[in-house]
């Protein structure tokens, strides 16, 4: 097999893996939402189809560089990913996971803040914020430019920070779960995790909900460290209040439409 064909197959396989992972994770949490909070996504069918389409496009942007690097790792030993657990001290396994999450969170925070500047927002990030409210399907609903900024992080880190292949799998799992659950419109985690002292430093759906409500705050992905340090942390959102505002806006739009229709009918009858 030629090198070019091997790289193409690896990139295609990784794209398929990322896409299937997205469909399973988002689909699973969307199903949990349907069971736990029936009607939460009512009226959002067109939005969810759009979220799936953007997300599957993002899967290719994430999958292609990951597939190329996976090929290079297997064929030529690129990267600092290792398979022998004895190659590094056991205590390093959890440390490496934490290092990756902190590095990813740092990149995400500053890139996310940049994405909220007027030009990048209008050009790219507005695609993600078009989901109002976001659903479990919105985790990867990005413009290609934004998807590219997210796709480079983990592939870059594997060249710099040693990590066992299983620990890397855990990082990717955390990334997937947090990406989906932060957008699904309700808290799946127990209250002590997001409402207690630990929640002052960890990001879950309640924290990210406020970002989608107010835009200019709560930019982090996993941890609240950068938000708190930079004064952009506005605390936890309120799902019930946000839903009430959306229902009120929908009611006003419906009432306005009925009023216009009534005036039209009255004019015709006259």
Explain what the structure shows.
With 270 residues, the chain is mainly alpha-helical. 68% of the residues lie in helices and 1% in strands. It has helices at residues 3-36, 45-76, 92-115, 118-129, 144-151, 153-157, 165-181, 191-195, 205-214, 225-230, 239-269; strands at residues 81-82, 163-164. The chain has a two-stranded parallel ribbon. The protein is globular, with a radius of gyration of 21 Å.
Give a nutshell description of this structure:
The protein is an all-alpha fold.
Please give a handful of descriptors for the protein shown:
2 strands, 270 residues, 11 helices, two-stranded parallel ribbon, mainly alpha, 68% helix
Based on helices, strands and strand pairing, what is the structural class? Answer: mainly alpha
- In N-to-C order, the SSE pattern is HHEHHHHEHHHHH
**Residue-averaged pLDDT, rounded?**
92
Radius of gyration from the alpha-carbon trace, in angstroms: 21 Å
What's the layout of helices and strands?
Blueprint: H1 3-36, H2 45-76, E1 81-82, H3 92-115, H4 118-129, H5 144-151, H6 153-157, E2 163-164, H7 165-181, H8 191-195, H9 205-214, H10 225-230, H11 239-269
Parallel strand pairs: 1-2
Helix pairs in contact: 1-2, 1-7, 2-5, 3-7
């Amino acid at each position: 097999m030629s090198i070019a064909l091997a790289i193409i197959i690896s990139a295609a396989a990784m794209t398929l893996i990322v896409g299937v992972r997205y469909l399973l994770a988002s689909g699973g949490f969307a199903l949990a939402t349907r069971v736990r909070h029936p009607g939460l996504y009512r009226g959002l069918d067109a939005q969810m189809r759009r979220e799936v389409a953007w997300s599957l496009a993002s899967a290719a942007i994430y999958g292609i560089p990951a597939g190329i690097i996976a090929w290079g790792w297997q064929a030529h030993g690129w990267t600092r990913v290792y398979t022998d657990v004895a190659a590094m001290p056991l205590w390093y396994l959890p440390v490496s996971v934490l290092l990756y999450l902190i590095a990813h969170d740092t990149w995400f925070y500053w890139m996310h803040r940049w994405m909220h500047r007027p030009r990048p927002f209008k050009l790219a990030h507005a695609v993600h914020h078009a989901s109002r409210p976001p659903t479990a399907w919105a985790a990867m609903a990005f413009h290609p430019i934004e998807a590219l900024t997210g796709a480079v992080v983990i592939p870059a880190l594997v060249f710099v920070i040693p990590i066992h292949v299983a620990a890397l799998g855990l990082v990717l799992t955390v990334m997937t779960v947090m990406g989906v659950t932060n957008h699904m419109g309700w808290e799946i985690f127990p209250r002590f995790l997001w409402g207690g002292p630990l929640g002052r430093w960890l990001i879950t759906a309640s924290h990210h909900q406020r970002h989608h409500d107010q835009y200019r705050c709560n930019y982090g992905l996993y941890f609240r460290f950068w938000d708190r340090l930079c004064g952009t942390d506005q605390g936890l959102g309120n799902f019930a209040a946000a839903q009430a505002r959306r229902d009120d806006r929908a009611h006003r739009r419906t009432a306005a439409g009925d009023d216009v229709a009534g005036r039209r009918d009255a004019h015709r009858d006259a």
